[in-house]
Amino acid sequence: MPSTKTQMSKETLLPKLAAHVLQHGLGGAxxxxxxxxxxTSDRMLLYHFGNKEALIRELLAYxxxxxxxxxxxxxxxxxxxxxxxxxxxxxxxxxxxAMQPFMVLWxxxxxxxxxxxxxxxxxxxxxxxxxLEWLQSQMPADDPDPEGGARYLLTxxxxxxxxxxxxxxxxxxxxxxxxxxxxxxxxxxxGD
Amino acid sequence: MPSTKTQMSKETLLPKLAAHVLQHGLGGAxxxxxxxxxxTSDRMLLYHFGNKEALIRELLAYxxxxxxxxxxxxxxxxxxxxxxxxxxxxxxxxxxxAMQPFMVLWxxxxxxxxxxxxxxxxxxxxxxxxxLEWLQSQMPADDPDPEGGARYLLTxxxxxxxxxxxxxxxxxxxxxxxxxxxxxxxxxxxGD
DNA sequence: AAGGGATTGTAGCAACTGCTACATTATTGG
DNA sequence: CCAATAATGTAGCAGTTGCTACAATCCCTT
Lengths: 192, 192
Known about the structure:
The structure is a homodimer. The first copy, chain A, is an all-alpha fold. Chain A has helices at about 10-25, 30-35, 40-50, 50-75, 85-95, 100-115, 120-135, 145-165, 170-175, 180-185. The first copy, chain A, is elongated and about 55 Å long. The interface between A and B is large, with 52 and 50 residues.
């Protein structure tokens, strides 16, 4: 009978904890439900992580890491030809149904970051940094300013995503169309 | 003349509850601390609001209302001359120290909205709608497209604010340099 | 095989959660 | 003034919270 009592470590626990948190949120996460999701006991979680705060901190770092490698694997096979195409590609990726749980968690991380909760700010900063790198690598090959353009698109993207989550998706999209940004989105050098 | 003096009602409770929530957050808010902040008992809060969910819902609606009237009173005495000036004015307002507690709460509302918590989405939507109206009323008088421009600036603004809360204020500002606002932003000293 | 550290189970504590039952006081209409 | 209703206080319940004490078991080294 392979009723093997698998030895547990942080490394085996974290993926299950992350899965639970992605589904049920960070704020309401308490030890016993987390332990159940990881097929352990609260006793064990505290044994491995010390206390809840450290657990959340490590969990957030792990999630940021997972997000980072996910972005690495999502590197587009082909470069977009325009900034607009680049923006749309990234926006579409952020709105994939599979991405939804992560997006929901993301805003919780931002909120915790704003409130100064331990670990939140670091994780949020890492994830944004990574996304910026990724975005820059996805910029059109002939873009006159890939670095600044990526930063600009990131700002626009996050604003668009946020408005989307509060029911103003249309507002953001119409804003993009109705501005001189249209040319900027097209990646054409400014002649203004 | 109606009743001479109501001892305690939702109307007298809500401001104190809002103050407490602005300081300590929504997620961790529980009845007894809320009651203490409002100089009552948990018993009374439930008497007036029915249950906690309804309390939070009404509290969020009240906060959205307060925010709305605050924006009304913050109507600029003079119209900005450019979109850039308009953007900077609103951004500066959002970064005032007095605005900080509200900003922190705002991201919690966005997070709750993303998670579908009752009342959060409605409050967030109202607040964004109001901010959009306000922004539109603050657009330059000669703007070719005040409606679309306001939507664009709002998207940019929210992205900028969010990046600021996760430690990427500089990223957003540098991104703006590469945007359609660049012409007016160029040559300005960077501040961080 | 024995010792010893690493790992895990069981039980429980004190504080807190939303909420309720019951009793009491205050206010007001008849 | 008295009764009805609104408003408040007291006490507590059942469940959850993070965390701990204590003991048992595992596995590796000697």
